[in-house]
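Notebook B, p. 112. Complex prediction, attempt 2.
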Amino acid sequence: MKIGITCPYSWDVPGGVQSHIRDLAEALIDEGHEVSVISPADDDTPLPPYVTGAGRAVPVPYNGSVARLSFGFLSVSRVRRWIKEGGFDVLHVHEPEIPSLSLLACWVAAGPIVATFHTAIPRSRVLLVTYPIVRTGLEKINGRIAVSEAARNTLVEHIGGDAVVIPNGVATRRYRKADPLPGWPGPGGAIGFLGRLDEPRKGLPVLLKAFEILGSQRPGLRLLVAGRYADADELLHRVPPGLRDRVVLFGQVSEEDKIRVLHSVDVFCSPNTGGESFGIVTAEAMAAGVPIVASDIDAFRRVLRGGEAGELFTTGDAADLARAAGQLLGDPARRTRLSAAALAAVADYDWSVVARAVLSVYETVVLGSTRVAVTAAGGEFS
Amino acid sequence: MITDIIIVVAAALLAGVYISWRAGRIDRLHARVEMARAALDVTLLRRGSVALELATSGLLDPATSLLLAAAVHGTRGGDRPRDLAESDLTRALRAAFGQPGFQASLSGKEGAGELLAEVEAAAHQVFLARKFYNDVVAATREARRRPLARVLRLSGKAEAPEFFEMDDSLVAGNSGAPLSL
């Protein structure tokens, strides 16, 4: 299949939508499809071979913050040319409600169009006011995908109609291999945590309490903590003084370092006390093959196959976490078994699986339809 | 003796006249601030409504239209302070008008020339009205700051007027003339 994908945000800025498009495009290419992505990008940014640059994105205020977007008649003609030359079977636009390339693509294209909605936003009047402007474009969409229930609800409320929910995938291959950080995990063993440190629902306080117990039982055991936090000192003061030098804070880490962090520990801990719908970090740890101790909230119970692919402990119970993690640290054979089970389980969430779900949407909308072409509307702009 | 009394009375009279003249001046300045503020509000509203007309005219591509409409919407009492929201609209207009060949791309379209000229004129009026407003605010604040005015509380209960700061230049990096299109 020949697939054209539009990205509304600048390719050179890291972001959830951009990585979603990258992972989806690469998974589709692996399946043998021909994929072309058009995205705003700085002229000197090195782009993957499947990405066409649509020129530099312009920083503009939108909804109270500054976004880097592509708009205007020059962008229109670039999108037109890309569609004309691409000869796509299907056009897949992302976030077409944002004033950027995806909206323009909907405007100039005719033929099978699939749209993916990423954001969940509270009901706002600005959408009601601006809907007449985007309606012509949005009405051409034949199939709609939302990446989460929350995104789907937003869509249903604001724009009407419905969407199929296809969640983000995990690029398992990217996580499979990485060098541990220098000196890790170390002879005394290491436990890892990744996530927002100042959000109590991520459960770091439970893990710190458990580390008090474990740290005194196991001299040399260290705790590696990576994630955004406001006050490192405050965090360290929650640990007894004797253990403080064994809690190592890494702050916010890059995508690559995140993978290295996962490979730097003997046991990864997901102590969340709730609020996760899927647990992407846990799934990424599974993809890295690190044995996992997780709280037994529904989301983790599901991805860890009820405890088969990772150890579960009673949510919020530091003593139970210390028990479970301690057992794992003392049993290398069990760790190896859990690692293998986690790798097998996370395959269900791989991008290749997600890509197949997206493909079936493509296949549905192209039925009885012609190829993607450009319409006369907007022709005046070329 | 008599002459001394006459001199004292005359001095007191003169001082009274002078003080009342100063108080009257501060009062007139406050009134002028209010008029200038009303004029500034009118130009901002005018600019917003012409920008919205451009956004919904169908002359522009939908992305630019959406940006403009959202920016205009933001100026009408959102969570964002007025000065920031109005500056956002300026930046959205600048992003649209600043594209190379923007005017040429619309030439020959019915009504495009008039509408663009109207937007530019409205933006220029905002620039002028804000300049005049800030001028009189500066004069008022200066008059209120004088020792005599402070000691005798000549400004009464009127609060010191605030400057209105915003980005109102249609040309990036140019805080002087807003127009060079």
